[in-house]
Amino acid sequence: MALVRRSDRPGLDRLVDEIEHSGGYAAGYIMDAVKEGAIETLIETVESDLGAIDVCVFNLGAQFGNLSLAETSLERFELAWRLTSMALFRVAKSLLPKMVERGGGTLLVTSATAAMRGNKGQLAHTSAIGGRRLLCQALSAEFAPQNIHISHIVVDGAVDSPDTLGRMIGRDRLAEYKHSLGQGKYRLLEPGHIADTYFHLSQQHPSAWTFEADLRTHQDLPWWNSP
Questions:
Q1: Does the predicted TM-score (pTM) go above 0.70?
Q2: What is the domain partition of the chain in residue ranges?
Q3: Are the C-beta atoms of residues 84 and 132 closer than 8 Å to each other?
Q4: In terms of Cα–Cα distance, which of 67, 155, 64, 69 is closest to 115?
Q5: In this predicted structure, what is the pLDDT of residue 227?
Q6: Is the pLDDT of residue 111 over 60?
Q7: pLDDT at 67
Q8: Which of 122, 96, 126, 124 is CA-nearest to residue 111?
């Protein structure tokens, strides 16, 4: 298993250790996803070091927080596109021909509410992630007949993780926010159960592939209903 992060080598190493202590094998890589050639080089490195990539989970996001038009610079708007749609295109360009040559493969693409609905303060994110959704549709139309399963997974809500919700509201506020939700279960999406869905998608038979999945809790949260 290859694990890739943009930063936080100590956190990446801890995750690799956890996998290996549980009996698995993993290798960790740090990559600057917007750097020219970085994605392409990493795919070649992983295939050389670990073997053919049968399942790729593309989980790169560009959530910059709640920003108005005045607060959204041209540079930030472009960076969101580079981290979402452009980065996915680069992965597809490098990896899908290899999968076709091998006779099959799976590309699971994490997405967000912003791919389905443009909310206030999400100008850069929603335009970029919306483009990602349509790119997935176009890739699936081209490659599904070649036995490549492409699935677009909308994570429609906040994830109970310091690297997702913590990044949006600040890690120091995460525990306070979770406490404010009360004692009811399933107010936030739980990473382990999200992973269960991804594993299921990776094992689907070609006669019943899921193109788009929508993951959410059964508890309504305030921002889901924002205009």
A1: yes
A2: 53-225
A3: yes
A4: 155
A5: 39
A6: yes
A7: 85
A8: 126
Q: Which residues contact 169 (CB under 8 A, 6 or more apart)?
A: 177
pLDDT score at 74: 93
In 3D, which of 59, 54, 55 has the Cα closest to residue 110? 59
The DSSP letter of residue 112 is: E
Report strand pairing: 2-5 vs 27-30.
Answer: parallel
Which CATH number does the domain 53-225 belong to among 1.10.3720.10, 3.40.190.80, 3.30.230.10, 3.40.50.720?
A: 3.40.50.720
Number of neighbours of residue 214 by Cβ within 10 angstroms:
12
User: Which pLDDT value is given to residue 179?
Assistant: 60
CB 37 within 8 A of CB 44: no
**For residue 31, with 0-12 CB atoms within 10 Å meaning exposed, 13-18 middle and 19 or more buried, which class applies?**
middle
The residue assigned the tokens 């490549």 is: 148
Q: Rounded mean pLDDT of 103-108?
A: 98
Q: Say how far apart CA 81 and CA 66 lie, in whole Å.
A: 17
